[in-house]
């Protein structure tokens, strides 16, 4: 019998962002389907569809990356970690969060700087700044950084356990 997990505020925020990414994915699918239908059936291409697809796709991907980080859904190689004593595993897990945090902060900062450089560039059809493409990276990695800080603190306090490979596979089997 599994314990009931009470949702934290981070869980609720990530669930909300996941919902937003799902809505964006539906809109993206409708736009692409509409473009194909319009272009090949009616011979009337939708002029905005390419730019809208270009705009929505990064937002879907990078918002979804937040949920992947929160739910430990990313790829990781745990073979050597699993051979270590539990205390060492915990510190290796914490160290991996710090490495991910460094990368996330770097990506967020770099995307912000790139956004500054593209602020004056305008998409020709939608007439919006190309910065909106880059903003998805900056915002998502900023949120990922906050999640990683939270996870690191929880690991240090002993409130977040190192996941076992069996548990991770079991979660995949049961759709968690």
Automatic annotation (TrEMBL):
It is a multi-pass membrane protein. Keywords: Cell inner membrane, Cell membrane, Membrane, Transmembrane, Transmembrane helix, Transport. GO terms for cellular component: plasma membrane. Residues 28-154 form the Tripartite ATP-independent periplasmic transporters DctQ component domain. The chain crosses the membrane at residues 12-32, 52-70, 91-112, 132-158. This is Tripartite ATP-independent periplasmic transporter DctQ component. Belongs to the TRAP transporter small permease family.
């Amino acid at each position: 019998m599994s314990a009931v997990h009470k949702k934290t505020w981070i869980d609720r925020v990530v669930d909300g962002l996941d919902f937003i990414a799902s809505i964006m994915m539906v809109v993206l699918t409708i736009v692409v389907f509409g473009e194909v239908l319009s272009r090949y059936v009616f011979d009337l291409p939708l002029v905005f569809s390419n730019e809208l697809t270009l705009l929505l796709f990064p937002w879907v991907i990078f918002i979804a990356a937040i949920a992947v980080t929160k739910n430990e859904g990313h790829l990781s190689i745990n073979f050597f970690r699993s051979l270590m004593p539990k205390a060492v595993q915990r510190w290796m897990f914490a160290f991996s969060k710090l490495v991910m945090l460094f990368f996330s902060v770097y990506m967020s900062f770099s995307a912000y700087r790139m956004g500054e450089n593209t602020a004056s560039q305008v998409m020709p059809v939608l007439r919006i700044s190309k910065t909106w493409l880059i903003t998805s990276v900056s915002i998502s990695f900023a949120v990922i950084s906050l999640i990683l800080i939270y996870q690191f603190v929880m690991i240090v306090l002993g409130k977040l356990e190192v996941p076992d490979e069996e548990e991770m596979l079991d979660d995949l089997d049961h759709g968690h």
